[in-house]
Amino acid sequence: MKIRDDGLVIYDEKSQRMADEMVMAEARHMAQRRRDGDDCACKDGMFPRASASRRGFLFAAGSAAGLAGSTAALAQKAPPGAVYYDVPADPTKQLGRPVAGDGGYGSRSQFETEVRVRFPTPNEYTSWSLTPLDKMVGNLTASGLHFERHHGGIPTIDPANHVLIVHGMVDTPKKFSMADLKRFPAVTRKHFIECSGNGLTEWNKPTQKTVQGTHGLLSTSEWTGVQFATIAREVGLKDGSTWVLAEGSDAAVMTRSIPMEKMLKDALLVYGQNGEAIRPEQGYPLRLLLPGYEGNTHIKWLRRLEVSDKPFMTREETSKYTDLMADGIARQFTMEMEAKSVITFPSGDMKLPGPGFYNITGLAWSGRGRVQSVDVCVDGGQNWRPAQLNVTPEPVCTVRFSYPWMWDGKPAILQSRCTDETGYIQPTLKQLIAIRGSHGPFGSIYHLNAIQSWAVDEMGDVTNVHA
Amino acid sequence: MFTPKRFLQAAALVVVVAAASTASAQSQDHYGFGTPIGPQDLSKYFAIPADGAGLPPGSGTAAEGAKVFADNCAACHGDKGQGNPAKGIGGDRLLGGRGTLASDAPIKTVESYWPYATTLFDYVKRAMPLSAPGSLPDNDVYAVVAYLLSEAKIIKPTDAMNASTLPKVTMPDRDGFVPDPRPELELYH
Known about the structure:
The complex is a heterodimer of chains A (467) and B (189).
Chain A: H1 13-35, H2 52-57, H3 71-75, E1 117-118, E2 127-130, E3 148-150, E4 163-168, E5 174-177, H4 178-183, E6 187-194, H5 211-215, E7 218-227, H6 228-235, E8 243-248, E9 255-259, H7 260-266, E10 268-273, E11 276-277, E12 287-289, E13 302-308, H8 315-320, E14 323-324, E15 330-332, E16 340-345, E17 356-365, E18 371-377, E19 385-386, E20 388-389, E21 399-407, E22 412-420, H9 429-436, E23 453-456, E24 462-465
Parallel strand pairs in A: 4-13
Antiparallel strand pairs in A: 1-2, 2-3, 4-5, 6-7, 7-10, 8-9, 8-13, 10-11, 10-12, 14-15, 16-17, 17-21, 18-19, 18-22, 20-21, 22-23, 23-24
Chain B: H1 4-24, E1 35-36, E2 59-60, H2 62-72, H3 74-77, H4 117-127, H5 138-151, E3 161-162, E4 177-179
Helix pairs in contact in B: 2-5, 4-5
């Protein structure tokens, strides 16, 4: 075990650059939000929709409600995924828009501005973007805000030409069209997906300012598709089959080896997400869904499953998604995402307007099953009290929790702690580092599931801290 | 009113419906969807495990690979495999780093960290170069693999890499990996 006295590590050049660039990217994103008027009263954090200046910002140029400025110019100001419409002074005194005038597919309100933010890897084709957890409500992630991680860009695939091949140690190798796959009985289940790199900047010191930066590689959807078990019977598994290679149809031709035990336990071949086809960024038209496994294994644009009696030792499962411990030995096939939670309100870069009541809320999840309970602590780890679970825990699905808090105006440290149904309790960062070593962003960077701490100062400013 | 007679009629209807649904909704474990395929349908696919199964014909040497590398790889990975962090590029460092894995600043490269040479062949053939994935002929893939392994002093400069020699290469960090020990017992003290 090597833990340096000063608690810090020497960043190698690449790691230092990545960390620095992520900090700068987040700063740029926040500056943009502020330019757009998102600072203001919404830095209250709590009532962003009540912020008059925010409501006005998008259309400041045409603030006379469409009287000034061309619609074309204003349309460019609509946030991604939204369409600009003139805002009447009184919507009860003017006919609204016609039914299905949007062409039959709706868009979000022009007043909703949250977006994914890309991690500033030098190359935008092999990169990732983070879900704005601080702006999200409820338990599911909007499909358009589901985090992304691509290794060779997002392919465009015509489902009419897409085929899944299942072969290897099977009795009857087969290919399945999307139409074939949709004829099988399907299941619909809610599951989170978390990238094992979620929080990789946070091991040594608090780096990101917002919960989008610290925890945004987490998203939850309702998924629909065929159980692998159904397909397995269709092709017939041979004796001795113990692993399955899954391969994507993107430029990375992404491959991972998955234990057969997992494939037959709960693996799904999904084509549906939140009531419609899965998004291109999520693997359209077909994705492997492995509840609780690290995100990289959920192969997107799934085109091939090869049944084998051994893992294939692909690049991702040897040199990339492995956990290098302080002793120089790496853990391999570290698949499960362990119990974790985070407070999303109040969270980093928010500001509480003053002492009084706040409904602390956040998300908890575990790759090993249901969330059993969540505790919240407002005094930096002294007294843990049970939070309320706002939804019924489902297997390997996030749970929205809340905790009523009367802030007395004094500095406070807010933390949450998840216990899953196995009895595993979310550890502290100190505990994890004591086990895995403090050996930097090029060492054990994955699977950070430590308790997150947010500090609230006397002014109500909320910051990311290690406590 | 729900008279006994109507009740009997209703009950009879329930029985009929139940019988009908039992007859129509037969539970199945095989559906017969999908189309059987043969070897010809699989020719474009590959995944090379550590024993080298599925390695294609062909061969290459470090000398040949030096040119392949310069033409196809150096722009992103540096002329000596040192990596290129420039914006829009971001190619990984490929060489060096031996002996650093247990240090405070580990350097993970093909040379220092990749446990199998077969993985390098698989990955280059599969996904490199980034802007033209899967474009290198098998001989070029063997050659550039030989070049990198030779530069890393894992093989001799004269060693040709092919389906028979590549799986026999022992990478420096071959024994550097252990199965996932989690849940970590230390968390149950």
